[in-house]
Design goal:
Structural class: mainly beta
Strand content: over 45%
Radius of gyration: 22 Å
Bound molecules: 2,5-dideoxy-2,5-imino-D-mannitol
Amino acid sequence: MTSPTPAATSAATPHTGASNPTHRPRYHFLPAANWMNDPNGMIYWQGVYHMFYQYNPTGAFWAPPYWGHATSTDLLHWQDEPIALSPEPGSYDEQGCWSGCAVDDGGVPTIIYTGVSQGRQRPCLATSHDGLRSWQKYAGNPIIPTPPDIDLLGAGAVVDFRDHAIWREDGVWHMIIGSGLRGVGGAVLLYRSADLRSWEYLHPLCVGNLAQGAPVSTGVMWECPQLLAAGDRHALVVSAYGDGIRYTLAMTGTYAQQRFTPQLIHRLDYGDDYFYAPQALIDGQGRTLMWGWLTEGRTTEAQQADGWSGVMSLPRVVALGQGGALCLAPAPELEALRGERLQLGPQPIGASATLASVRGDCLEIHARIDPGDADRCGVAVRCSDDGAERTRILFDRAAGQIGIDATQASASSSANNDARSGPLALAPGELLDLRIFVDRSVIEVFVNGRACCTGRVYPTRPDSLGIQLFAEGGEAALAELQAWEMRSIWGAPAAER
Ligand code: DQQ
């Protein structure tokens, strides 16, 4: 395998990103160019948010991953830092430095990641002694040489062994690793250690069930596990994979005697893998903030033609909802990106009405809608003047579903143009409350504080900037709509990427 040694992605690196900026987000983080996937090692360190991410510095396609790195003091504007980890040819991570986490080991920033070589996935460690800028790999890597042989216990052989989350409990480090048990389902394996280097396997923290179909299938393997405190419960977040599924699952329940027992399980984002492999940190305000990888919804050829692939989600505040589900809300800091406010309503919503005063492809829209007797209603964004292209944020009351209908989003044959949704029931008299973030090809929607849905859209028409309200099978009413143009996080247009 050849492994180029690229220059570090630093603030001084010229932005060689989009040859065609049409779809490139302006207020979401993404590297200047090339491929990114999972957020890694998210950590709040001495007043600074550190975001690492899976990165291919050689092109807009997946390859043995490096760890890219960026920092922020305000959650909005990000500074590129040197590449943190690179695969080492001929070593235990020659096939990539896969996903992992970062912890504070008594003042020493420490990364645990998955080193991959010859198809084997093994935990590895690296430390920084210059304030998270450069990282030295531990001479004793890999720190766990083989997965546990839990087949002996009759639980099924371990099919994968990667991705890490670590916490301290009773003065001891605890680590979970994403896995799957052949013929059984996804699994999260629990270890403990006194020094982060020598680990003792305990048992599975939680195991899925391949046979489960309702309320949601849980897949063959669980990637990127993380155990979070949420209100009076715990939440186990995993990215469920295999058997035709790929989405983030949130399980809320109890953590006791070092085992997690789920009580409720749901998809964390109804856009499925458009919000994938998320990772959370706890910041200086004690908030749990989460970011996910927004995958592309277009062909690999289209991604490579544009020179970039993958976007980081907006920062989302994690909380336990009233019904016991894990809920995500946009971080309040995002309000600082708002331009002038425009306000509309109340007004009736007929079949479809284009808003004359709101247009754009970088917007935040907050709409509160009374569904009335309409079967379906919502807000359409990125609408062309002739209606040929449009993306609908659609509440289907009869089906009890909310989602993003992008089946008419783009005239391009390279775009997915799909529809994704999940359950939403409104209480009698409750308004549909949509906070919609449009950032060129990214749509993030937060619904009634208890559901969210991410989409990717690639309109082709320069006039696909319109906003419409629509109702079908009856009349709905707009209680209020506020809209703001969102500012770029990259400063002047010349500095944009
Ligand atoms: N991506 C990483 C893996 C992880 C997967 C590799 C999830 O560590 O399981 O780039 O998207």
